[in-house]
Each structure stands twice: as structure tokens, then as C-alpha cells.
Amino acid sequence: MAKLPIALIQTRTPASPGAAFAHVEPLIREAAAGGAKLILTPEATNFLIQDRAARDAVLETQERDEAVRKLRDLARELGVWLLIGSAIVRSGHDGDDRAANRSLLIDAGGAVVASYDKLHVYDVDLPTGERWRESAAIRPGDGAVVAQTPWGGLGLTICYDIRFPQLHRALARAGAMMIAVPAAFTVPTGEAHWETLLRARAIETGCYILAPAQAGAHEDGRRTWGRSTVVAPWGEVLAKLDHDAPGVLFAELDFEAVTRARTAVPQLTHDREFTPPS
Predict the structure, then answer these.
(1) Partners of 104 in beta bridges
(2) Among residues 43, 60, 70, 240, which one is catalytic?
(3) Of 36, 39, 217, 243, which residue is most buried, by most CB within 10 angstroms?
(4) Would you tell me how many other CB atoms lie within 10 Å of the CB of residue 249?
């Protein structure tokens, strides 16, 4: 199997779709110029807004969202596959005004070939005093997705999903050879857990883990951890941006490494039923 040149885009996404596209476009062009055939952006690529009223003022369906439309055109122009790590869009569910946090995989012709709504929403009170209630604004999805690409299966997850190993195992067992983890991690949890969780999910699944991240101080007041990372199937960090500034991270995936890892530790075939503890 041929090797796959990829690029992760690290962003500091602004608070409107038009400004968000203007921010990410040159980074994607840089990635394509550097030879990447699959390019991945972070969670909330189309805008990053905490305030519910301000968010609702710019919220659109995925078909009408300005950033999504322009990103599809850009993928077609550049002839690359592009994963919008997520776009915040109208969920399309009648009677529920919450948004969807949705990954969109775009092929080299600009078509949306797969989508995934974030399964696990982040509701927490942090020791720092930060309080997050993602469930108030985001309608969680209800299904896992392995998207088919010319290079193999790509499992789709978003941010907080990284803490649920059963999801990643299910993706690997369904044919994923690489798993996307686009994120907007907070600084405290990013510093403590980001790389450890990414490496653990790679080791448990024998997959490449591709984690493009939001980074730095945003217009809406939040700070995100950055440190976009690619982890190989044996658990070693293949490439990493060791900062919280916008940038492009290049890597090359050799899918023979997936075979080697899963042959050495065939854990995906060794499940056993058991009685849970009482």
C-alpha cells in the first residue's frame, strides 16, 4: 500500500464563518503545496463562539454555512481530501434548537462523502473555576462512522470523544486504519491529558491517531491547548506542533505499520464476554 502524505491544520478560529475561512485558507493552501493529499482541520473550524445568542446569530445549515461552502470549493480547487474536523451547524432536528458539532469529510471533487455528529458532549465544572455545559448548545449524535477513503478507513471522532476508548475500539474493529481526533482542548486538560490519551487510543486500536487542534487565546475569551499531534499505531509520536500558534503539521502514514502493530498485539480479536462487577 502506498504511503499517504497528510497535514494537520492548527488554528485559532475567529468568531464568524467568513473570518474563519480567511484564517484557515492559507494554511490549507500551504498544506496542499507541501504535498498533503489528506488535510485535517480542528473542531469548530467554521467559528468559535461561547455566547449562545452570538452563536445563534451566525448559525446555519451545513449547506448554507459560508466557511463550509468555501472549504468544499477549496478542496475541489486543490484536488485534495479535506476533513473539516468539525463545523458548528444547525442540527436539522425539528423541535431542537441546539446545533450539531459535525465532522465533514470532503473528497477531491468537493463532495461531502461522510459526516459525523459528536457523540459525547462536555459538561463539567473544572477546579480552575471554568464551567462548561456543551449539552446546552450541542445536540449529541447517536452513531459512529468509519469513512472510506482511497487509502483506507478513517474513523471520525471529535474532542471529548477521546476519553471513550470503546468508541475507538469499535471504529478499529469496523475497519478504521486511522482515527481523526479534531479538538479544542482546554489548557488544563490539554496539559495534563492530551498526549497521553492520544497515545493510549493508538496503542489500543493499532490505528494512526490524527489530532488537529485549536490553539491559543480566542476572540471569545477561551484558551485552547494546541499541540496538534500524529501518533503511530505502536504509540510513538510521529509528528507534533509543540506550541499553541496556528500552523501546519506534515506527516507521512505507512499503513504497513498498522499491520505490524496489530500482528504483534492482536487485541482487536481477543475480546471475551464477562460478567460485570456487581
Answers:
(1) 84, 115
(2) 43
(3) 39
(4) 24
Q: Does the annotation count 159 as an active-site position?
A: yes
Question: What percent of the residues of the chain are helix, what percent strand, and what percent coil, each to the nearest 5?
Answer: 30, 30, 40
132, pLDDT greater than 90 = no
- Catalytic residue, chosen from 37, 70, 159, 240, is 159
**Any residues with CB less than 8 A from the CB of 46 and at least 6 apart, and which?**
13, 17, 20, 21, 65, 66, 67, 68, 84, 87, 88, 89
Q: Where do runs of H (alpha helix) occur along 60-163?
A: 66-78
User: In whole angstroms, what is the distance from residue 221 CA to residue 95 CA?
Assistant: 30
Reply yes or no on whether 43 is catalytic.
yes
C-alpha neighbours within 13 Å on the C-beta side of residue 208: 27
Share of the chain above pLDDT 70, in %: 100
Over the Cα atoms of the chain, what is R_g?
18
* Residue of 60, 118, 207, 240 marked active site: 118
Grid look-up 442540527 returns 91
Mean pLDDT over the full length of the chain: 96
Every domain of the chain and the residues it spans: 4-265
Is the separation of the CB atoms in 148 and 174 below 8 Å? no
Has residue 33 got a pLDDT over 60?
Answer: yes
CATH 3.60.110.10 fits 4-265, yes or no: yes
